[in-house]
Design goal:
plasmid, mainly alpha, 68% helix
Length: 72
């Protein structure tokens, strides 16, 4: 599990850096083509976020026990 936490932390750091770069690109975008390119990239990120939202947090486990042999 700690390996996964490390991977997630790394992704969060990368996303922070990407967020800064996106903000810079938005401020510098001057043509319609540049704006559309940024918009396409942000739509892609939004679609990825939607996929993540579809995953429910694992905060409980539901289980049932089925008897193989009936009780005497």
């Amino acid at each position: 599990m700690s390996h996964l936490t490390g991977v997630i932390s790394s992704v969060i750091q990368d996303l922070d850096t990407i967020g800064e770069r996106i903000n810079s690109a938005i401020n510098k975008a001057s043509s319609d083509a540049e704006i559309l390119l940024l918009e396409d990239a942000l739509i892609s990120l939004s679609e990825t976020r939607t996929r993540l939202q579809g995953k429910a947090p694992v905060n409980q486990v539901n289980a049932s026990v089925t008897r193989i042999h009936p009780l005497p």
